[in-house]
Design goal:
The complex is a heterodimer of chains A (553) and B (445). Chain A is of the alpha/beta class. Helix content of chain A is 34%, strand content 22%. Chain B is an alpha/beta fold and 445 residues long. Chain B has 2 domains: 14-19 and 66-124 and 305-435, Rossmann fold (3-Layer(aba) Sandwich); 128-302, Dimethylsulfoxide Reductase, domain 2, CATH 3.40.228.10. Classes of the chains: A alpha/beta (553), B alpha/beta (445). At the A-B interface, helix 1, helix 2, helix 3, helix 4 and strand 16 of A face helix 3, helix 4, strand 8, helix 5 and helix 11 of B. The structure holds iron/sulfur cluster and zinc ion (ZN). Zinc ion is lined by residues 59, 61, 118-119, 264, 379, 382 of chain A.
């Protein structure tokens, strides 16, 4: 069957198309080259509409134990945000921490066709995949969390042969069915278990003697040498601590050119100037990011309102419990593997700190000069729920709107921020980079995030509404694998997306050591620790797509 | 009609022989180091199972089975499913209770409840709510099994006969053969607070002092409150609650402060006394206080009968940890109103669908005037004849699946070890949902 999208304006940065009007043809779920003579079976007239690839969220907490803890803890989040079942869709709930089904529907309604869970604990990987399996409509993938797990820290403390460390990283990606690796507060989650309350970049872990710097460079180099496309995804030390901008600058320098992605960098760009000892470090951070092409970032923008923070960073989340709103929280030590902290949060525009956090995020967006190295995130739900993305896009694209919003925040924060003086307005082309082409390239999704021949036909068509928030809230058409799944912001067909993984090579001999280790110390055997393919795809939960990795060196 | 279990994927018939790394579905620890011999039909635990596991795995499969039935008369599986779906379709408010099943079964029951506008509640929810209540009011600081196994130097077991509900807890967590980090030279201290576990149940290579602080269960909250006051330096009640000497609590407070990782353990099912909610509250307070200077955590056991799986799946799919009604087309949560046992007792709901697939003694439905559909293990003993009985296999014996462990972090894969011709809960519930009329709410245009 041949489908034609007629007359749209194409924003496809991966192929250098900036609003050119052309038709798009789709056959068997793929975009095909223009063929004016072929018989068209279905035609959609999208004349004058804005056409982009389906959006990709490279960092959104949609699946895994800490989200289910948040859901359980916060019934007040769901009340009043119920989503009724229909003839097509299941019932659900949730605002900041939506139920899985509701999250999948809502993402698709906003034109997203792929979402990546960035903090999958290997010990919790099975559940993370079960939850993602219950998140319909979108493709999924997850990053395995390493860096506070006993096995790696032991290997590093014993100065094991680097190839064994690489084998372990690769083995973990296979076992947990991951596409990338994330490190959260490198070594710090473990250090907290040994009663250390902070761990700076060069501070030693009390038991293993390794430093966050060691962990970062080991994992980054390991992934690079394994040929994994996405660089090490880093949630650095000292999240949320005033003055942490220096940690962030030092972290970038510590990488010495190794590829690295610094996530929710807004939470890591704080200075200590001013009466309140809290200031923006955005300019310094953006400057160093701009100068280091090995670095990519996502922002983790905060937006005002009720949300819930959920992180693997038990050390820093424990510190944040004093700001919990409502006053309840969960922190956990997990399996000598990782941890988690779930702290509800209400960001207020009349709070100096929250208002400045908001401004710092925008400053980073507006000062970062290479859109290919910046991804649009709120670190859902940590900065704000993903449903605020259209609002955030308007803030980036519309400086008048941005100034109006700036007028509403705490006056001292206005005065302390340079946002009001930044005239930059993101273009549609740049937004298409931030929300599609950039994440796809960074994650190694070769046939996603663009509209060239051979691409998977995940396509979103927006009305060209000058109110960009309205435009990005309600696309007119969303296609997944060439099927029309959303029309005018409403679900037309429920589909099950694929799960993307990467499988770098490893020497199977590593399993001998690991099997012994699991048998001695763990409460799960090595064989049961691994998540099997049919657990993910069984019960019609969609396919697994193995994205290519480079050669191991 | 469902073929005998399709499980997670199209499954091959189980191979006779001995299987290693088998996960046990019979309590919330879900030990996965069992060795089970199968002749294709009969199973024998050949290594690592406790008595409870042996009783579950080795239960003789019913010779003639307990066939599908309608009003007690044997019928085909197809006929039983057809009648059950008619009853569900006709019900104004179907109640889905028991919910003793695995993740796949619970997923399918959730879809069925959504479509039929029913209520979901697990048979052990009452126990689980002591935890949920604390989680939803104050939150807590918790641990998991591997973390406690390797790092705890002090276990405080609160009013729970852990050895009865979770027989291998001491062997696997308190005193395992090896730990990642050195255990204290004089062993791990185990404190038994409140009537619960006999000190004789605590032994092993790593066990050091065993401190028994006996008192009536009903006094446990007051005793814990006194401990909290000591730790906070607050004035004491002076009442010697439960007859416990203040010196014993001062000693316990000192041990807690000195511990590098104190783990407070309880089994929600055992906390069945007035004020048990307070006990969990105060434990979580004590843990919070300790974490200001040292490290400590709670460790809730439980999760028997698939309770942790049911609560987790219900939470991620609906937002709420059970006691959810789909009657209005949206999930509505009310832990008091949507307690199935209460609803039945008070004549709310006009059909009970009871799911109970774990042996060796599957929980039977409560007595009720409402017609009942039982989707149950053939080992179930029923006092009254249900309107429909649909036999199902046990997850991890008759079909593959997954179960969430008591700590709600780890989940274990289950194997198919024998073939006795039984479908899974997931098969049956999926089939039932497929036969119901579509939701009338129009699909959005
Ligand atoms: S302790 Fe529980 S999980 Fe372990 S073998 Fe016994 S019944 Fe099974
Ligand atoms: Zn995040």
């Amino acid at each position: 069957m041949l489908m034609k999208l007629k007359g749209g304006r194409i924003y496809d940065p991966a192929n250098g198309e900036d609003g050119r009007t052309r038709d798009i043809y789709v056959r068997d779920g793929r975009i095909v080259a223009a063929s004016p003579d072929a018989k068209v079976d279905v035609e959609h007239d999208v004349t004058g509409r804005v056409v982009m690839a389906g959006a990709i969220d490279p960092h959104t907490h949609i699946g895994g134990g800490k989200m289910t803890i948040a859901r359980m803890m916060l019934p007040e989040d769901h009340r009043g945000s119920e989503v009724a079942h229909t003839g097509l869709t299941r019932a659900g709930t949730g605002f900041a921490v939506p139920s899985t089904l509701a999250a999948g529907y809502r993402y698709a309604e906003m034109g997203y066709t792929a979402c990546f869970e960035p903090a999958m604990l290997p010990a919790n990987a099975r559940q993370a995949h079960m939850e993602m399996g219950d998140t319909p409509m979108v493709d999924k993938g997850a990053f395995a969390m390493l860096g506070s797990d006993d096995f790696l820290l032991r290997q590093m403390a014993a100065r094991k042969d680097f190839s064994a460390i690489k084998d372990y990283i690769a083995w973990t990606m296979h076992a947990a069915q991951a596409i990338a690796v994330k490190v959260v507060n490198p070594g710090g989650i473990s250090a907290f278990k040994f009663n250390q309350r902070k761990l700076d970049l060069d501070e030693r872990h009390a038991h293993y003697g390794v430093t966050p710097r060691d962990v970062l460079t080991t994992l980054s180099r390991g992934l690079m040498e394994l040929g994994v496309t996405h660089p090490l995804h880093v949630h650095g030390c000292n999240l949320g601590v005033p003055g942490n901008l220096h940690t962030t600058l030092d972290t970038i320098r510590a990488m010495e050119g190794l590829p690295v992605h610094l996530t929710h960098i807004q939470f890591h760009s704080y200075g200590t100037e001013g009466d309140k000892k809290f200031s923006s470090g955005a300019a310094q951070v953006a400057e160093l990011v701009n100068a280091n092409r090995n670095v990519s970032i996502d922002v983790g923008q905060i937006l005002f309102g009720q949300t819930c923070t959920a992180s693997g960073d038990s050390m820093r989340q424990y510190g944040n419990t004093k700001s919990a709103n409502p006053k309840k929280w969960v922190v956990m030590d997990i399996e000598c593997d990782a941890g988690c902290g779930v702290v509800p949060m209400k960001y207020r525009d009349k709070s100096f700190v929250n208002a400045l956090q908001w401004a710092i995020g925008l400053e980073i967006f507006l000062l970062a000069d290479d859109p290919w190295r910046v991804f649009l995130t709120t670190d859902h739900p940590n900065g704000a729920p993903f449903t605020t993305y259209p609002h955030l896009i308007r803030l980036l694209m519309d400086k008048g709107f941005r100034r109006d919003m700036l007028q509403k925040i705490h006056p001292d924060a206005q005065a302390a921020s340079i946002v009001g003086s930044l005239d930059r307005e993101y273009t549609l082309y740049e937004i298409a980079i931030l929300t599609r082409a950039g994440p796809a390239r960074s994650l190694g999704l070769k046939d996603r995030g663009h509209l060239g021949p051979g691409a998977c036909a995940d396509i979103t068509v927006y009305p060209d509404d000058p109110n960009r928030e309205a435009m990005f809230t309600t696309p007119e058409y969303v296609f997944k694998n060439g099927e029309l799944i959303v029309r005018n912001g409403k679900i037309k067909k429920v589909v099950q997306g694929a799960t993307h993984v990467a499988r770098p090579e490893y020497d199977p001999a590593i399993e001998r050591d690991l099997r012994d280790y699991f048998t001695r110390y763990h409460t799960v055997s090595l064989d049961n620790f691994k998540v099997a393919d049919d657990e993910i795809i069984g019960h019609d939960k969609g396919a697994i797509i193995v994205q290519p990795t480079g050669a191991r060196v | 009609m469902p073929a005998p279990s399709q499980g997670i994927a199209r499954e091959k018939a189980p191979q006779p022989g001995t299987h290693g790394s088998v996960s046990c579905p019979f309590c919330g620890l879900h030990c996965d180091d069992l060795e089970v011999r199968s002749d294709g039909r009969r199973l024998a635990v050949t290594a690592n199972g406790c008595d409870r596991a042996k009783a579950g795995f080795e239960q003789e499969p019913p010779a003639a089975g307990m066939p599908p039935s309608i009003d007690g008369k044997p019928v085909s599986l197809e006929a039983a499913i057809a009648r059950a779906s008619d009853l569900i379709a006709a019900a104004r408010l179907p109640l889905y209770g028991g919910l003793g099943t695995d993740v796949e079964g619970m997923r399918a029951v959730m879809a069925l409840a959504d479509r039929s506008g029913g209520v979901v509640d697990h048979v052990l929810s009452r126990a689980q709510y002591r935890n949920t209540n604390v989680l939803q009011t104050r939150g807590w600081f918790m641990s998991t099994l591997t973390e406690a196994r390797n790092r705890a130097d002090l276990f405080v077991i609160v009013a729970s006969d852990v050895s009865k509900l979770h027989p291998r807890f001491v062997e696997r967590i308190v005193s395992p053969e090896q730990t990642m980090f050195d255990a204290p030279a004089n062993g791990r201290t185990v404190v038994l607070l409140g009537a619960g576990m006999p000190p004789s149940a605590v032994s092993g290579r790593l066990v050091g002092d065993v401190v028994d602080i006996p008192c009536a269960k009903s006094d446990v909250p007051a005793v814990l409150a006194e401990l909290r006051a000591i730790l906070r330096g607050a004035p004491l009640s002076g009442a010697r609650p439960g007859g416990v000497e203040i010196t014993a609590l001062e000693d316990l407070a000192a041990r807690c402060r000195a511990a590098q990782y104190a783990v407070f353990v309880w089994a929600p099912q055992a906390l069945d006394f007035d004020g048990a909610d307070d006990a969990v509250h105060i434990v979580s307070d004590v843990v919070r206080d300790l974490n200001k200077t040292t490290r400590a955590a709670g460790l809730s056991l439980g999760g028997n009968d698939g309770a942790a799986s049911a609560a987790s799946v219900c939470s991620w799919q609906s937002g709420y940890p059970l006691r959810v009604s789909f009657a209005g087309g949206v999930p509505t949560y009310d832990p008091y109103r949507f307690e199935v046992a209460r609803m039945l007792a008070e004549g709310e709901g006009d059909l009970l669908v009871w799911v109970s697939s774990f042996g060796p003694d599957p929980t039977a439905p409560p007595a009720t005037a409402a017609p009942t559909v039982v989707i149950g293990s053939p080992a179930i003993r029923l006092d009254t004849t249900p309107a429909v009985f649909i036999p199902v296999g046990t997850p991890g014996l008759d079909h593959r699946g997954r179960l969430v462990r008591c700590d709600s972090v780890v989940s274990l894969p289950l194997r198919r070890l024998r073939e006795i011709g039984l479908a899974s809960v997931a098969d049956v519930a999926t089939e039932l949902a497929g036969r119901l009329p579509a939701v009338v709410a129009p699909a959005a245009e």
